[in-house]
Design goal:
about 350 residues, alpha+beta, NADH Oxidase, Leucine-rich Repeat Variant, four-stranded antiparallel beta sheet, two-stranded parallel sheet, 15 helices, cobalt, metal ion binding, cytoplasm, cobalamin binding, iron-sulfur
Length: about 350
């Protein structure tokens, strides 16, 4: 091994130590060869599984060829940070309560983009202090990056049949982030796939969006429907959303590897404004000012008040019929948004039994 190679090995070890000190639970390094992932992505796009997420194909091959996105990239530092805020029993309890509002647990606290980006920048600063002419770029789900494929190559886990990254010692309740760098760092060994014959995630998906192992049709996915989709939620899928008003965690809740998941120590990821235990009628009553105040610094704010009401209206339509729900929906019938009015009308028909036939 040459002197320069030895230096890179030592630097890689330092980077991992610095990353752990900054609060990441794991740090890995990969090369930039994503040919296999590129083939999977192209096949997924060809089937229109991305729905209205045009950004998935807008950047051409930049997503799967890192050097096209950040010139000179030779290796990628991949990190994960746990975010699990509570036990599975608490989540199951909310899902079982048709009057409660279920929000995907990644969105209960501070926007993870901000938390991870800040830590990654500090890590990049440490590396730059050691390598003055460092070329790099930090990413947290903010550009055309195949973060799960990169993390898999970096040894952080394997992509499960639900398309999430899984780790044998930590499950899947974690965020990912990357630093593209021009350093020739030694790559880590990828982890073997340990899903085996298990198909629990396929069976539990409320909308059957996991159409085959490792194949998710986003157009049916609750997370897509409640977060990415800007227009009306397809009527045939609305009853399947239950009380999920922002995202979905079902495939993670049922995954046996998540018995090894760890609770997060990051206060930023702890629930704000009791978002882990809100009632549908309470959050449906928020006007736009209150919505903006209660979601300040949160990933939820990106959908805006209009889609927030759209999602909750669907959940109210799926709830046990009650005079209070009918009154709340009726009060929104004159909402200025046609999108909100449509979903409120549908929910009222559900509440009054007019959709039964």
């Amino acid at each position: 091994m040459s002197e320069s190679d030895t230096a890179m090995v030592e630097l890689a070890q330092q980077i991992k130590q610095w990353g752990l000190a900054l609060g990441f639970q794991q740090v890995g390094i990969s090369d930039t060869d994503l040919a296999e992932a590129e083939g999977h992505l192209q096949g997924w796009l060809a089937q229109d599984f991305h729905g209205d997420m045009d950004y998935m194909q807008r950047h051409g091959l930049k997503r799967s060829r890192p050097a096209l996105l950040q010139e000179g990239t030779r290796s990628i530092i991949s990190v994960r940070m746990d975010y699990l805020p509570e036990a599975a029993a608490a989540m199951h309890s909310i899902l079982a309560d048709r009057a409660a509002a279920y929000i995907s647990r990644y969105a209960l606290g501070r926007d993870y983009h901000k938390v991870l980006r800040n830590r990654l920048q500090k890590l990049a600063d440490r590396i730059q202090a050691q390598c003055a002419d460092l070329g790099y770029r930090v990413f947290v789900d903010s550009a055309p990056v195949l973060e799960k494929a990169i993390a898999e190559k970096a040894g952080l886990g394997w992509i499960g049949k639900h398309s999430n990254l899984l780790n044998r010692k930590a499950g899947s309740w974690f965020f990912l982030g990357e630093i593209y760098t021009d350093l020739p760092l030694p790559a880590d060994t990828p982890t073997a796939n340990h899903c085996g014959v298990c198909t629990a995630c396929l069976a539990i998906c409320p909308t059957q969006a996991i159409v085959a192992p490792y194949q998710v049709d986003a157009r049916r996915c609750v997370s897509y429907l409640t977060i990415e989709l800007h227009g009306p939620i397809p009527e045939d899928l609305r009853p399947l959303l239950g009380n999920r008003i922002y995202g979905c965690d079902d495939c993670q809740l049922v995954c046996p590897w998540n018995r090894f998941a760890h609770f997060s120590n990051e206060s930023d990821f702890h629930p704000r404004h009791k978002l882990n235990s809100q009632q549908l009628l309470a959050v449906f009553a928020w006007d736009e000012a209150e919505f903006l105040r209660k979601t300040e610094g949160s990933a939820i704010r990106r959908i805006g008040h209009e889609r927030w009401l759209r999602n909750i209206a669907v959940a109210l339509g799926n709830a046990q019929p009650s005079p209070a729900i009918i009154a709340a929906l009726t009060a929104r019938l004159a909402h200025p948004s046609a999108l909100v009015r449509e979903h409120v009308q549908w929910a009222l028909q559900c509440q009054t039994g007019l959709n039964d036939g």
